[in-house]
Amino acid sequence: MELVSPQSNPNNFPSPILANSSARPVSTTPTPSRYENQKRRDWITFCQYLRNHRPPLSLSMCSGAHVLEFLRYLDQFGKTKVHNPTCPFFGLPNPPAPCPCPLRQAWGSLDALVGRLRAAYEEYGGRPEGNPFGARAVRIFLREVRDFQVKARGVSYEKKRKRPKQKVAHHQLRRHRSHHLLMPLLQVNS
């Protein structure tokens, strides 16, 4: 099975359909979301990385090891200060002074990137069971990056709990509150 590179159709949109012999094209596809645009850009970047790889790699030959190489390559463009264990600010979330520790990709950015690329791989024709972005080595790498950044930066990455939905509708709550405000007045007047 050959994977499709987005270069063949950069916008990934179907051809416009002509309606009732008018010259104006009618688009049947809604405008892509921010997520879809970012996923397409990430996929193009990854395909470009594979083409520039020495030796060049095809998508069908790509493995989890190549994904790890790509993630390590992206570290040079990171914007998150990650302190080395020997740094005096290791473990401090807000260091009081600058230090020579490197800037890296934040764990959350890498995790989101891998998720988008995993989805894009399957959308462009890859088999889910052969998806290199879902490889065990990639999951372990992301876990290690997260754990190290928690220690180095002193910032935890715990999942935020969703608040339970209130069962009382907003308009019922307002009516309920006003009823309680009027109750003492009713009791005084009786």
From TrEMBL:
<feature type="compositionally biased region" description="Polar residues">
    <location>
        <begin position="18"/>
        <end position="35"/>
    </location>
</feature>
<feature type="compositionally biased region" description="Low complexity">
    <location>
        <begin position="1"/>
        <end position="16"/>
    </location>
</feature>
<keyword id="KW-0539">Nucleus</keyword>
<keyword id="KW-0238">DNA-binding</keyword>
<keyword id="KW-0805">Transcription regulation</keyword>
<keyword id="KW-0804">Transcription</keyword>
<dbReference type="Pfam" id="PF04852">
    <property type="entry name" value="ALOG_dom"/>
</dbReference>
<dbReference type="InterPro" id="IPR040222">
    <property type="entry name" value="ALOG"/>
</dbReference>
<feature type="region of interest" description="Disordered">
    <location>
        <begin position="1"/>
        <end position="35"/>
    </location>
</feature>
<dbReference type="InterPro" id="IPR006936">
    <property type="entry name" value="ALOG_dom"/>
</dbReference>
<protein>
    <recommendedName>
        <fullName>ALOG domain-containing protein</fullName>
    </recommendedName>
</protein>
<comment type="similarity">
    <text>Belongs to the plant homeotic and developmental regulators ALOG protein family.</text>
</comment>
<feature type="domain" description="ALOG">
    <location>
        <begin position="34"/>
        <end position="161"/>
    </location>
</feature>
<keyword id="KW-0217">Developmental protein</keyword>
